[in-house]
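Deliverable D2.4 — example input (structure tokens):
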């Protein structure tokens, strides 16, 4: 059953991808992958987390059908590794899951057949090794084939009628490249149908707890000095960031209209300050609360100062969000401005998880584990948004001024929306020409798509 399923999957893989661009085929491949994994790992699919990863993987494949972008393709690949790695060991952290998924995809077949270090083998494995005689199969296939070819050559010279029949046989229908892609598909599915784990990394991850423990060298006098140093340092940094925030509020309240260059400088300098502040904050807090100081009874003042510093950094995030939002309002959305907002979200999450680490007495592994989980979730969610379409829509409807050439230079995900604005009187003749050219080129591309390359825009174009 397994061999038949892998063989069929390999043929479908080549049908989906041979000489085709990305479109509906990647979503169909995602469905096929889930089916192959389900056949051999049915008990794992009763796990709620497995179902979540499966839905995330299928969502990224469907996203590519609606708007094929580099981000959605990257998200699909990451979700693919995540699902496979999770099936190898459901309790491992997500970064180990990625490692297991990548290793399974590349070397699963060789690991199962040639790299097993287990001294004991199951009865089924022993039987399989005894039954499969590769040399015997090679003899059965190669020797009769070579002998038949030799006799065909001899008979062709001895009988002109036979020679004519042989020459009429055309093997041109056999596409070697298609078969090679099918072979690649078979190798891929053969690797992933039974996911494996990188044991050293997985075992270390499972053994590593999130909680901090007292060390044998616990010393009250030493911790008292560390606590004093931490209080002085974090108090000064609190004072510094308060001064920055006050001057920032004064600046924003005193300026009614801010030029684009000044807004840009403010946003970028604010981001630089935020990066430095968060990096320093996290590194200092991780160092201060790295061990026994977490269990020192006199650390309450230090913890309050640390929490205050984190909250002030979050206020700094709010300040930068406001500046960036004003900049977007006046001059429109761009990928860089969206990137600023994404960074601010990640920075805020990093600060909050640091606060949780300190308050719950967790170790650095806790931070790494929870933040990688959050990063994966943000990647999946952000890939589901058609950013080119949303940027174009926002700039036409809300931006006080915009760079239309920037919108035209975006991917084809906004082409149909741009074509809807061809009647705008604000457009210049050259801008209308560029939009029409982009629309005509994209329409031709959609009209030549095979069923494997279909996109949602194919159906939208038909309704126009």
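Example output (designed residues):
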């Amino acid at each position: 059953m397994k061999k038949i399923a892998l063989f069929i999957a390999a043929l479908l893989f080549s049908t989906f991808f041979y000489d085709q661009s990305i479109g509906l085929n990647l979503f169909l491949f995602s469905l096929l992958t889930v089916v192959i994994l389900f056949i051999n790992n049915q008990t794992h699919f009763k796990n709620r987390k497995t179902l979540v990863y499966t839905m995330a993987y299928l969502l990224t494949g469907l996203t590519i059908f609606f708007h094929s972008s580099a981000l959605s393709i990257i998200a699909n690949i990451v979700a693919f590794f995540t699902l496979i790695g999770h099936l190898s060991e459901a309790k491992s952290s997500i970064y180990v899951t990625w490692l297991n998924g990548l290793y399974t995809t590349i070397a699963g077949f060789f690991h199962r057949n040639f790299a097993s270090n287990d001294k004991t083998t199951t009865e089924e494995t022993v039987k399989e090794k005894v039954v499969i005689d590769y040399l015997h199969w090679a003899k059965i296939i190669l020797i009769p084939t070579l002998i038949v070819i030799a006799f065909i050559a001899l008979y062709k010279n001895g009988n002109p009628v036979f020679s004519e029949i042989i020459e009429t046989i055309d093997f041109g229908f056999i596409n070697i490249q298609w078969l090679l892609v099918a072979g690649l598909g078979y190798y891929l599915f053969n690797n992933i149908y039974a996911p494996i784990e990188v044991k050293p990394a997985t075992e270390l991850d499972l053994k590593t707890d999130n909680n901090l423990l007292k060390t044998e060298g616990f010393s009250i006098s030493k911790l008292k000095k560390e606590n004093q140093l931490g209080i002085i340092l974090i108090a000064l940094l609190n004072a510094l960031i308060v001064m920055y925030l006050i001057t920032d509020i004064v600046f924003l309240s005193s300026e009614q209209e801010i030029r684009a260059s000044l807004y840009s400088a403010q946003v970028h300098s604010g981001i630089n300050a935020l990066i430095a502040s968060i990096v320093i904050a996290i590194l200092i807090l991780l160092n201060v609360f790295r061990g026994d100081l977490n269990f020192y009874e006199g650390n309450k003042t230090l913890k309050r100062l640390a929490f205050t510093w984190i909250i002030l950094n979050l206020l700094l995030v709010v300040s930068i969000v406001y500046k960036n939002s004003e900049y977007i309002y006046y001059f429109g959305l761009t990928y860089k401005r969206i990137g600023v907002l994404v960074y601010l979200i990640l920075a805020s999450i990093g600060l909050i998880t640091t606060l949780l680490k300190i308050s719950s007495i967790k170790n650095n592994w806790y931070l790494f584990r929870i933040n990688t989980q959050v990063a994966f979730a943000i990647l999946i969610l952000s890939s589901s948004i058609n950013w080119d379409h949303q940027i174009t829509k926002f700039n036409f409807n809300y931006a006080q001024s915009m760079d239309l050439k920037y919108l035209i230079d975006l991917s084809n995900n906004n082409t149909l929306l741009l074509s809807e604005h061809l009647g705008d009187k604000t457009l210049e003749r050259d801008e209308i020409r560029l939009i029409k050219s982009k629309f005509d080129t994209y329409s031709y591309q959609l009209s030549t798509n095979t069923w494997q390359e279909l996109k949602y825009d194919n159906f939208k174009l038909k309704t126009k």
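The CA atoms of residues 57 and 79 lie 5 Å apart.
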